[in-house]
């Protein structure tokens, strides 16, 4: 297995932590020397390849530091001088392109200070000579082990983007636009999950997330239609009323584009602008490229909703194996306690990261001690408790070779305090404590000083007689990592694998191995680890990351669906409460062969590997759309005179996600006052009797279709009421 010593925290290699006298991200000479050496190296590499725009290349912008302004007050004057030094150092490298500092309001000229966050419309740079830039627009939020799944409604995300450009924004970048996976041990936090999907427009597997992807695509098309006016003049701000804002970009040559915003969170409002009436839903922005016609409203989605589906199959052993499905497992037991030659003994309890240099998640703390027969802890009626305090992030306690309990922290508090009832015997007793990290601290002032591991106290407490024995200062023996890591069990090539004995299940510290055929097709692949406890997995020798399906999120607090109106925060919109934070773990297709793949697991607390399964993810055969009779025309149709003449009002459009599919059936259609969301639509108090037949005739048998959302198409089932069309269709 490759050396793990180069793992990063906040982008820094851990060896930086061990340079004498170093302090990160402050006016510290050892740190500045390494920072300058690294930055100059990267710039030189870019220059050699002629990648900067000043050389004719594609790089138009460089960044130095990141979000230091959020924490610089903790560093005092040394932080201020560090920022000035960093700016000067970056400029001295002469890239020929601008440099930015994100979230640094005092960025020295000519460094451009930029905004990161959920909203940046109120941000202003620290000089009128600097553009208003949004370097991180958080499209969702990251998932933590033990947490519910965060998501951000696209209506709010689109609102934030439209507001930014309405109020003079020049550049906006999504974080994340494409979700990802924290393979190996690269996740930080601590406790950030292996999945880094982030509710991004392109998901962890590379598939589009609809309607988020499509609605943002429409948004940027609408903003692009305003480009000529936006770059030609400064705006004016006609008054519309409380919580209402109009922003007009109008030139003397006749160019005119406008943004109309309702920043209230409760009520839709009809406003008068340029002599016309416009309905503005709460917490929305309408975009008028010609100052007359609404081409886009952030709260009105024209894009389809796609329901992803997962095809599940049992783990198939390799085709050349004679074993039955699911029976081709072999195993090796990981020894409890000290088993490696590089173990060492020291008095007291050591901090973990300094001890392991992050070469492994694991550090053994082992101690043997004699308990006298007349020790009060062994008196009749006395119940002994093992008390352990740890800086985090998790631990498993073994007494005389047997697991007596586990404890773990959380993303909000990594520390662990446990009290395990134990049974001691007269004579020698062994205490083997396996401490482990779940990613390293990666944010905050002085974060590199945040420790991990069992720093104590470790005590034996007699609950019946008040006896208390502190083991903290005794001679502890330490072992970095596992014996299986040293022997490269993750490669699957060891000769120690046992396939003849009964497969151990629900037992701690077991390595498992099997071979399997790749799932058929080309869809993205994941492994469902339901049935396992906690550990790490490797496919063909490459780590797919930590798995932890037994860490379940709290039962309360989920909001699915979530009201997009009002300011978003990372805990506002949550789903998957009371369920494992992550059960599915991405395996890139590029890592797989058609057959003969090797899967290796290290299970810490106990699981049944025969229960795991593969899933493949598809965009799904079901698609939905829900369009009101007040929706704007789809932005793709705006400006196309022939289509506007045929379809003067709102249009509901459907299109199958895959090129070889056609719409095969209509599961639901209602024009009137339909209720619910995709997958659970129902008819409201009025519905046109022609709804289903009209939609079937327009769509079935076609790859795509468009239907006018109006009484001209369906008749009027309830006069004087705002109506909408909801459709759910299937593609095959």
Your description of this structure?
This protein has ten helices and 40 strands. The strands form eleven sheets. Strands 17, 30, 34, 36, 38 and 40 form a six-stranded antiparallel β-sheet that branches. It has a six-stranded antiparallel β-sheet with strand order 19-28-20-25-22-23. A hairpin with a 7-residue loop joins strand 15 and strand 16. The longest helix has 20 residues, at 29-48. The two termini are 45 Å apart.
Structure in a nutshell:
This is Beta-galactosidase 8. The protein is α+β, with helices and mostly antiparallel strands.
Helix content: 10-25%
Mean pLDDT: 94
Fraction of residues in β-strands:
25-35%
Shape: globular
Supply the helix-strand structural class.
alpha+beta
Largest sheet features: 6 strands, antiparallel
Radius of gyration over all CA atoms, rounded: 30 Å
Number of helices: 10
Terminal Cα separation, in Å?
Answer: 45 Å
Low-confidence stretches: 1-7, 319-326, 640-647
Number of strands: 40
Protein name: Beta-galactosidase 8
Organism: Citrus sinensis
Annotate the secondary structure layout.
Layout: E1 8-9, E2 12-13, H1 29-48, E3 62-63, H2 76-92, E4 99-102, E5 112-117, E6 133-138, E7 149-150, H3 154-166, E8 171-175, E9 180-181, E10 195-196, H4 212-225, H5 227-230, E11 244-250, E12 256-262, E13 269-273, E14 276-280, E15 284-288, E16 296-297, E17 305-314, E18 330-333, E19 344-347, H6 352-356, E20 362-371, E21 384-390, E22 394-399, E23 402-408, E24 416-422, E25 427-436, E26 458-462, E27 468-470, E28 475-480, H7 483-486, E29 510-516, E30 525-528, E31 535-539, E32 542-547, E33 574-575, E34 584-587, E35 597-603, E36 613-628, H8 641-646, E37 651-655, E38 663-672, H9 691-699, E39 704-708, H10 711-714, E40 724-731
Parallel strand pairs: 3-4, 4-5, 5-6, 6-8
Antiparallel strand pairs: 1-2, 7-33, 9-10, 11-12, 12-15, 13-14, 15-16, 17-36, 18-29, 19-28, 20-25, 20-28, 21-24, 21-26, 22-23, 22-25, 26-27, 29-35, 30-34, 30-36, 31-32, 31-35, 36-40, 37-39, 38-40
């Amino acid at each position: 297995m490759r050396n793990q010593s180069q793992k990063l925290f906040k982008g820094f290699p851990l060896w930086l932590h061990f340079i004498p006298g170093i302090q990160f991200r402050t006016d510290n000479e050892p740190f500045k020397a390494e920072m300058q050496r690294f930055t100059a190296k990267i710039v030189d590499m870019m220059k050699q390849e002629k990648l900067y725009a000043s050389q004719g290349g594609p790089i138009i912008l460089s960044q130095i530091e990141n979000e230091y302004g959020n924490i610089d007050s903790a560093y005092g004057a040394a932080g201020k001088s560090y920022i000035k030094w960093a700016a000067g150092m970056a400029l001295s490298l002469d890239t020929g392109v601008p440099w930015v500092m994100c979230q640094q309001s005092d960025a020295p000229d000519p460094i451009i200070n930029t905004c990161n966050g959920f909203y940046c419309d109120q941000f202003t740079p620290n000089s009128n000579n600097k553009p208003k830039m949004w370097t991180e627009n958080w499209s969702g939020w990251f998932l933590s082990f033990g947490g519910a799944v965060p998501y951000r409604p696209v209506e709010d995300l689109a609102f934030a983007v439209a507001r930014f450009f309405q109020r003079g924004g020049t550049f906006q970048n999504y974080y994340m636009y494409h979700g990802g996976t924290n393979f190996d041990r690269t996740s930080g936090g601590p406790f950030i999950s292996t999945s880094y999907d982030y509710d991004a427009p392109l998901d962890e597997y590379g598939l589009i997330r609809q309607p988020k992807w499509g609605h943002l695509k429409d948004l940027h098309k609408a903003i692009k239609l305003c480009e000529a006016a936006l770059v030609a003049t400064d705006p004016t701000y006609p008054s519309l009323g409380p919580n209402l804002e109009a922003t007009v970009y109008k030139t003397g040559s006749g160019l005119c584009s406008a943004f109309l915003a309702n920043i209230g969170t409760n009520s839709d409002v009809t406003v008068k602008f340029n002599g016309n009436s416009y309905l503005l839903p709460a917490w929305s922005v309408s975009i008028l490229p010609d100052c007359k016609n609404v081409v886009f409203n952030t709260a009105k989605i024209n894009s389809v909703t796609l329901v992803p589906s997962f095809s599940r199959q049992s783990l198939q052993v390799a085709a050349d194996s004679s074993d039955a499905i699911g029976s081709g497992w072999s195993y090796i037991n990981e020894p409890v306690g000290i088993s490696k030659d590089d173990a060492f003994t020291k008095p007291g309890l050591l901090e973990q990261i300094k001890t392991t240099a992050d070469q492994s998640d694991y550090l053994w703390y082992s101690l043997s001690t004699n308990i006298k027969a007349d020790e009060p802890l062994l008196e009749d009626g006395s119940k002994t408790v093992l008390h352990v305090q740890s800086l985090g992030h998790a631990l498993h306690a073994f007494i005389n070779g047997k697991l007596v309990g586990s404890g773990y922290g959380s993303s909000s508090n990594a520390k662990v305090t446990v009290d395990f009832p134990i049974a001691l015997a007269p004579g020698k007793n062994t205490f083997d404590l396996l401490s482990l990290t779940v990613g390293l601290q990666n944010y905050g002032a002085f974060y590199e000083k945040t420790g991990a591991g069992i720093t104590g106290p470790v005590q034996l407490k007699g609950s019946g007689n008040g006896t208390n024995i502190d083991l903290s200062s005794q001679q502890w023996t330490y072992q970095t990592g596992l014996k299986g890591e040293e022997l490269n069990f993750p490669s699957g090539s060891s000769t120690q694998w046992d396939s003849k004995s009964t497969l151990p299940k629900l037992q701690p510290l077991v390595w498992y191995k099997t071979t399997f055929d790749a799932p058929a097709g080309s869809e993205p692949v994941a492994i469902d680890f339901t049935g396992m406890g906690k550990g790490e997995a490797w496919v063909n020798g490459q780590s797919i990351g930590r798995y932890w399906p037994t860490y379940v999120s709290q039962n309360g607090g989920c909001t699915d669906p979530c009201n997009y109106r009002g300011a978003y925060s990372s805990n506002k919109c949550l789903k998957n409460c009371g369920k494992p934070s992550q059960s599915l773990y991405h395996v890139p297709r590029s890592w797989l062969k058609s057959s003969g793949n090797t899967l290796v697991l290290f299970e810490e607390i106990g699981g049944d590997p025969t229960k795991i399964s593969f899933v493949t993810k598809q965009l799904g055969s079901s698609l939905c759309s829900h369009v009101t009779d007040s929706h704007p025309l789809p932005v793709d149709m705006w400006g196309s005179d022939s289509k506007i003449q045929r379809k003067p009002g709102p249009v509901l459009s459907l299109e199958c996600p895959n090129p070889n599919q056609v719409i095969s059936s209509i599961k639901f259609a209602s024009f009137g006052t339909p209720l619910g969301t995709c997958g659970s639509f129902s008819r409201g108090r009025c519905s046109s009797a022609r709804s289903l037949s009209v939609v079937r005739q327009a769509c079935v048998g076609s790859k795509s279709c468009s239907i006018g959302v109006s009484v001209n198409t369906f008749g009027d089932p309830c006069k004087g009421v705002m109506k909408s069309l909801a459709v759910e269709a299937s593609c095959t």
